[in-house]
Every structure is written in C-alpha cells, then in structure tokens.
Amino acid sequence: MADLGVAVIGCGSTAERRHLPVWTKLAGTRLVAVVSRDAARAQAAAQRYGAARPLTDWHDLLADPEVQVADICVPHPQHAEVAIAMARAGKHVLCEKPLAPQLSAARAMAAAARAAGTLLFPFHNMRLLGASSAAIRLVRAGRIGRPLLLRAVMCHGGPDATDPRRHWFLEAGSGGGAVLDLGPHLFDLVRALQPTPARRLRAVLLQPPDHAVERDGVVDVEFADGSLAALTLSWSQGAGRETSLVVHGTAGTLRVCLLQAPDPSPGQRAASLVLGEGWGMQVAVSYPEPEPDGEPCTALVRALAGEPPAVSADDGVEAIRWVDACYRSHATRGAWIDL
After folding, report:
1. Could you tell me the residue ranges of all domains in the chain?
2. pLDDT digits over 266-275, tens only?
3. SS3 at position 194
4. How far apart are the first and last CA of the chain?
5. Fewest CB atoms less than 10 Å from the CB: which of 44, 67, 83, 197?
6. Within the chain, how many helices (H) and strands (E) appear?
C-alpha cells in the first residue's frame, strides 16, 4: 500500500509545534506539500521538514492526486472554507481545533465530509493524552461510581504571551477569545468523562475594555441526570499554565492533571492521575499509570486503516455547540441555554 500523501496548510507556530514534526516521522505517510501565504515561510518549512512542494495557495492541492490528507492549521475563521473544499475534492481532513467559530460552519464541515465519504478528524489532542485515556477508562469502568460533579480548569497567559505572531487570536474577526480557543479541549474532555448528555449551560465571560475578545470565562453545565460541571477558561494566568480536571462520583474521586507549571514544589511533578475510592476515612488512594500518549496525526492514519476514529467529526461539532451556547448565555447575562 502506498504511503498517504499529506499536505499541511498553514506554517505558523501550531503547525511547527504539533503537526509538521509528527508527519516527518510517521510511518505510512509522506509530506507532499506545505502551504503558507508567505512564500519564504513555505519554502523554509519545506526545507526543514522535507516536503516536496512549498505552495502559497491551498487551492493548488484540490486536484493534486498525490495528496490524500489535508492538515488544516490556518486561523480558525478559515477552517470551514478549506475543509469543505478539501472534502469535496475527496481529501481527508485533520483540522486544528476549533472546527470553526460558528456552529453552522462546523455543521457544514461535518456534512461535507459525510457527503463525500471522507474523514473529518478534529485535532482534540487533549483527549488522546495518556492520562486522559486512562481517566476515561477508569470512570467508564465505574471506579468512582456515577459522576456527580466535574471541576475543570484550562488556563495560560494567552496566545499573545507565547507567540506575538498570533495576534489574530485577539482580533474581533477571530470569532471568539479564550472560550473558543480553550473551550473545545475542555468541553470535549468533560463530555468524554461524563457519558450522560448535557442538558443546559450558562456562562459569564470577562472582556477587558481594550480587548475585542474575552480573556476569561466561567461555565456551568447541567447534565440530564442532574450532575454538574464547573469549568474555568482563562488567558490570564501569567505564571505557567494548568489543565486539570477533578471528577467526584458516588464511590470516589479522580483527579487528572494534564499540565501544571510551575511545579507544585521544586523538583516535584504533580501526579497525572490520583484515584480515591471509597468515602471519608475509608478512602483508598492510588496513582494509576497513564496509558501511552495518543497523537491526532497517528489516530487519523489508524482510522483510515479501519480503526474506529478516536475523535469524530460529531465530537468536534458538539464542542462548538457548547461554545455557541456560552456566547449566547453571556449575551443574555448568564442565562441558562438549552443544549
């Protein structure tokens, strides 16, 4: 079987960190092209990662028989246009989160892939991390009983703190701020850890006077069985970053620490999984080993080989449905919005 031909569309910091290095090493794939509106950046990326063709226009890929997979890393307002065109051209799509700023656009992307018989794979990499996978397995196995309350946090200093080239994140045309940027990760993880469907949510967002988008948000979610989730999303954590979840159940508690920096104490790392089974003075605490980390590029290749997709297009759409509900709730001063 011939290697899958891959084109990476967008050569910014996200592609450089999470996408291009993986494709250069992933067995069964070949990096055919890289695309950037900046010809010099496309040329530099092609040389660095061994792509055959540096391009400045993604339309040139549509009729290219060597490209079977389009990896979309452009700013998220452009995701839908590129993904829909690629699906109609018969290309499979790996798309950085969020699928799109608007729910209608995300749904159109999923519909285009279904109509074309191609795969749309959202880049929800947090769900594929080893600690996440192990936590999902433990909860679904009933180790903490029925989930009652989930507390989740995803915070860092914002895109402007890590790469000034990503100033577009802060512009009104981006479609949103911290909720659109961080929410898809956290919403997807919460949905994976709480199999009961969400019934409604409410959100309050903070937008500084000199900003076009929100930097912080607090989101409450109520599920069909009455259980709750309380979520914090922030671009205001100046010291380090954190992504963590705690799931309280009828028979125990599970803490998942995916990222915490600075470390809790010098030289010590937070345990990525802490499982407490039982109640009160009878709690038995253990530290389950994370499963091996997964990676979206690899998961997409496996899905194309016949494995069930680790993350589906519907998962990506559902995350944007929550994002959309957050913005509608905030517009109505934090009213509950049915999901």
Report:
1. 4-124+295-311, 126-292+323-338
2. 555 567 899 9
3. coil
4. 44
5. 197
6. 11, 15
Is residue 1 classed as helix, strand or coil in its secondary structure?
Answer: coil
E-state strands within the chain: 4-9, 29-35, 53-55, 69-72, 92-96, 120-123, 147-155, 198-206, 216-223, 228-234, 241-249, 252-261, 273-277, 284-286, 337-338
Task: Provide the token pair at 130.
Answer: 């080893």
Q: Which two tokens stand for residue 111?
A: 């519909």
Fold of the CATH domain 4-124+295-311: Rossmann fold (3.40.50)
**Best CA proximity match to 99, nearest among 185, 33, 217:** 185
Q: Give the CATH fold of the 126-292+323-338 domain.
A: Dihydrodipicolinate Reductase; domain 2 (3.30.360)
**CA–CA separation, 220 vs 84, rounded Å?**
33
User: What are 162's two structure tokens?
Assistant: 């890590």
Mean pLDDT of 90-118: 98
Fold agreement (4-124+295-311, 126-292+323-338): no
**Burial profile 41-79: b = 16 or more Cβ within 10 angstroms, e = fewer:** bbbebbeebebebbbeebeebeebeebbbbbbbbbbbeb
Task: Identify which of 74, 117, 66, 121 has the alpha carbon closest to the alpha carbon of residue 93.
Answer: 121
In whole angstroms, what is the distance from residue 149 CA to residue 221 CA?
10
pLDDT band at 35 (very low <50, low <70, confident <90, very high): very high
Query: What single-letter amino acid sits at 307?
Result: E
